[in-house]
Amino acid sequence: MRHASIFYRTSLAIASGLTCLTATTRIEAAEAAQISESVYRSAYFLGRGDTGIAEADREDAIFYNPAGLAQGTGIYKKTVLFSPQFEVSQGVRDVAKSLSNSTSSAVDTVKNNIGKPISIGLQNFTGLILRRAALGIVASSHLKLVAFNDPDSGGLQAIDAQADQTLGATFTLAEKFFGDQVLIGVTGKYLQRARGGVTASAADVDTIQSQLNDQSKFLGYGFGSGADVGVMYRPGGKLNPSLGIVFNDVGDTQIKPKETTEQNLNLLQTINLGLSLEPGTLQSKVKLLFDYRDITGRHYKNPYERTHIGTEISVWNRIGVTAGLSQGYPTFGFYTDIYVLRLDVGTYAEEASDYLGLRPDRRYFLRLIAGF
């Protein structure tokens, strides 16, 4: 789990600078940095509004809807040797750009960017994907920081830092029923998961530094297993409609802490719905997608935060442009697939507070997949 340590060092330098100033923007403590529950997020899907429950395939199907693995003909689908995906938030980019300006001091840079969410992420998937079966290994790390005026401390500035790390093995099975109309799939997963958080005032900056540097104090971790179950219904027709439903972390994925910790490491069950339409020809295709996530509201209370809309235009399934809305924020992506290499780049935003529209965290991503 050491692969995320570079994130802590980079973000720690920014956090130290932030805690030396008094914020002019009020952010309630409840709006502090939040960590996503997702073990894996597809760059391809993020560019089109983070949609794909109704038509996910290959490595994306393992995590978004395992039923999609039954699509197609033949036995072999793909071998993914590695697929590093990097994410960095607008806040990090703005700080780096300002620091590169010789006329700006470090203090001026922090003042100009105070109150903006700062997040960094890294993930990788490696696996063998057959039609109806897949084996994989996934690793991911995220670090998020935000400065706020703490109402419990007389409005003094504080820093909230949150981090998570996941290393897991997955095994997926899927099958078709009633011809090609109904697809059902299951992903079993065994995870080592770590999670940590610390909130401290500017006067306690040494506390943040010491805890971020000592991951054994900052992170609580444990091991556990869980399962995702997905269904797709593909009735056929000119628009190639598809409906999908997936139960992620059925019955909650229980992560048993290795040592005593205050961190809740479990992954809560969520129920997600999806719809896709795919008109087009053999040379080009257009996809229209709609996902509604967490329909029971276990993570997101606001219905708009659960809503995802996406579209895609592709040529020969090799070059494509994607766009959409995720939690009401615009997304954009581009990909090119040349058999052994695939590149995805783009941007999306995620709400960093408890109130939609208050603190959007604009992020930029890049993923490179090598395989055959």
Structure in a nutshell:
With 372 residues, the protein is mainly beta. It has helices spanning 5-18, 43-46, 58-64, 90-99, 106-112, 205-213, 215-218; strands spanning 76-82, 85-89, 118-130, 133-150, 156-177, 182-201, 219-233, 242-248, 254-257, 270-277, 284-292, 307-315, 319-326, 329-337, 341-351, 360-371.
Structure annotation, total helices: 7
Structural class: mainly beta
The total count of strands amounts to: 16
What is the first-to-last residue Cα distance? 28 Å
Shape estimate = globular
Give unreliable regions as ranges.
1-8, 10-35
Give the helix/strand layout:
Blueprint: H1 5-18, H2 43-46, H3 58-64, E1 76-82, E2 85-89, H4 90-99, H5 106-112, E3 118-130, E4 133-150, E5 156-177, E6 182-201, H6 205-213, H7 215-218, E7 219-233, E8 242-248, E9 254-257, E10 270-277, E11 284-292, E12 307-315, E13 319-326, E14 329-337, E15 341-351, E16 360-371
Antiparallel strand pairs: 1-3, 1-16, 2-3, 2-16, 3-4, 4-5, 5-6, 6-7, 7-8, 7-9, 8-10, 10-11, 11-12, 12-13, 13-14, 14-15, 15-16
